[in-house]
Amino acid sequence: MSDIPNIFSYRKHWAKKFGVAHELPTSFTEMKALGWDSCDIVLVTGDAYVDHPSFGMAVVGRTLEAQGFRVGIVAQPDWQSKDDFMKFGKPNLFFGVTAGNMDSMINRYTSDRKIRSNDAYTPNGEGGKRPDRSVLVYAQRCREAYKDTPLIIGGIEASLRRIAHYDYWSDKVRRSIVLDAKADLLVYGNGERQIVEIAHRLAHGEDVKTLTDIRGTAYVCNTIPDGWHVLDSQLIDEPNDIVEPENPYNEKSKCETSNKPATQSNVVKFQDIRELKRDRSHTVLQLPSYESVREDKVLYAHASRVLHLETNPHNARAIMQSHGERMVWLNPPAFPLTTQELDGVFELPYTRLPHQSYGGANIPAYEMIRFSVNIMRGCFGGCTFCSITEHEGRIIQNRSEDSIIREVETIRDNVPGFTGVISDLGGPTANMYHLACKDPQIEAACRKPSCVYPDICQNLKTSHKALISLYRRARELDGIKKILIASGLRYDLAVRSHEYVKELVTHHVGGYLKIAPEHTEQGPLSKMMKPGIGAYDAFKKLFDKYSKAAKKEQYLIPYFIAAHPGTTDEDMMNLAIWLKVNGFRADQVQNFLPSPMATASAMYYSGKNPLRKVSRTSEDVSVAKGAKQRQLHKAFLRYHDAKNWPLLREALKKMGRSDLIGNGKKHLIPSWQPSTSGADAKIGAKASRSQQKKITTQRFKTKHTDH
């Protein structure tokens, strides 16, 4: 990686003379007040503009500003016309479009496809301030505004839709978003390295159509570039019982993807496969076409598996996928930022406040992270339902301790309303800071989707010393009363360091600590790539031990997922029994939501398991898709809610488990149903409250709580 330029090493653009803006402009008037006559780059986002390093558009905007570019922000524009997209005039270099910190469909709809009433990234939590599939809509308006201006799309929505993907809300496979958005380039993953290179190359006069060699980007092409060899993914990870083929270009759709005739230079013969596996730098893997994965669920699962095997930037190959006559080409992932670069990004001159134009309105997502500090990026857990690895990668990128301490001091000294409590020192996970492979060469060659499943890799360094040092230094700062840890904890790693658990429990738990066992049964856990419930039990023993030693009454808050692929009705019943035995009464639960590109979403759609080689006869995965079954799985998590009892009684009888229905301690649900009308309802409500109080008291005595 020594030849990779530091993102802050580029010669700054000439517009650096204008200096640093207190806030990036969101209107023409604000732009003129800065002395600008135009913007070099206009960024469009579905979120309110909060100038804070936890908001992606602020990070991209400030990073580009640090390169000397003039950046304007179009936040939550009126998408019904092109007017808002023209407020700064024509950008000199490009439009950058994102849906915001969340996929717009996940942001707006629940796992039951119901519209949410609010939006945490909007002033006062108001819903309806962004369109469905925001990237597509915003991109269309940008094209209407200035047709010939280069259009770059990015952020989580674009990143997770970079190839043909299952879309839960339309219940079909959709094309790559780079095609539907008619974008020149798609930036996937954390995009600082890519967007800086794009901006400088465009500023130096390159045509956007020539920017085809940038890692971490995708684009549409008609021909295979010179010097590249095409390797059919089905030859290296067979989804069928394949007999040795005449050549891997025998499918009509593949032949027609290129105007260039197949020649010895780019046709892969069967005997060449072993050689091409070694030569990755100019080998592109060809996934089954969009049309193929749309019609064939086995091929869809195969394509998902291959994509996820090509995520390590040190050994990933380029990928292409035909969509009709055109190809979507994905360059390998960008290399992670170094500690020096990451420090630089997080220490840019953010105001750490919502834009002044919001007049002090409450933005829920901002309030949540207002006094928090992000200490790292990435996650090597590989949980199949999560999109962190697909977006941020599994190689941990760490900030330096000094940089983190400086940010804590900045919050203490400059952020209004600070009371001395840092709400979080964390990231995608709370305790992967400075955890990495013990050998860079092993890490560079590794292609495993997880470093901690089915067990913690023997090559993974699990020492928490760096994190303990950070905690101690941060809480010793003048003016800091408490440092809380709010990010999700990887408890199977934590138990490897009793010193860390003691430090955490003694000083950094505010009464409750959230933790995510997700399930108790091996069926769903094996499809989630999560550890068994025994790891949770081991952590709980340490948690209780050190809480008692510190003379603190503290509780774990466990999270569980209903209806995840691989989950049967019996699995959910057993989870419900475990919850009752352990005194848990979950108030807020959620069914599995298939996010684009996640491995678990491929399971949900295809009924196959992409964690292993996929074939017509390979393992089938049980999937709860019907509304009634998904409702049942959710009801098991809320076994204590009387509204769910009729559904649960019916299901338990069908499952032959009527023994769980009754009025004793050994029963899961009662045989009686409270009245819902008149005086009986009041009596029932009173009895319910009394019962709730009794159970709640008992629950806290056993050191458990709701979530």
What's the helix and strand layout?
Layout: H1 28-33, E1 41-45, E2 50-51, H2 56-65, E3 71-75, E4 94-98, H3 104-108, H4 134-145, E5 151-153, H5 155-159, E6 165-167, E7 172-174, H6 177-180, E8 185-187, H7 192-203, E9 217-221, E10 229-232, H8 233-236, H9 252-255, H10 273-278, E11 283-287, H11 290-295, H12 297-309, E12 318-323, E13 326-330, H13 339-346, E14 353-354, H14 364-369, E15 372-374, E16 376-377, H15 388-392, E17 397-398, H16 401-414, E18 421-422, E19 424-426, H17 440-445, H18 465-475, E20 482-483, H19 491-494, H20 498-507, E21 512-518, H21 522-528, H22 533-549, E22 555-562, H23 569-581, E23 590-591, H24 599-606, H25 627-637, H26 645-654, H27 678-701
Parallel strand pairs: 1-3, 1-4, 4-5, 5-8, 10-11, 11-12, 15-19, 18-20, 21-22, 22-23
Antiparallel strand pairs: 2-14, 6-7, 8-9, 9-13, 12-13, 16-17
Helix pairs in contact: 2-7, 12-24, 16-18, 18-20, 20-22, 23-25
CATH topology of the domain at 1-214: Rossmann fold
Low-confidence stretches: 241-265, 678-707
Any guess at the CATH architecture of the domain at 1-214?
3-Layer(aba) Sandwich
As laid out across the biggest beta sheet, the strand order is 3-1-4-5-8-9-13-12-11-10
**What share of residues are in beta strands?**
5-15%
Q: Please give the alpha-carbon distance between the first and last residues.
A: 44 Å
Give the class from helix and strand content and strand pairing.
alpha/beta
Q: How many β-strand runs? A: 23
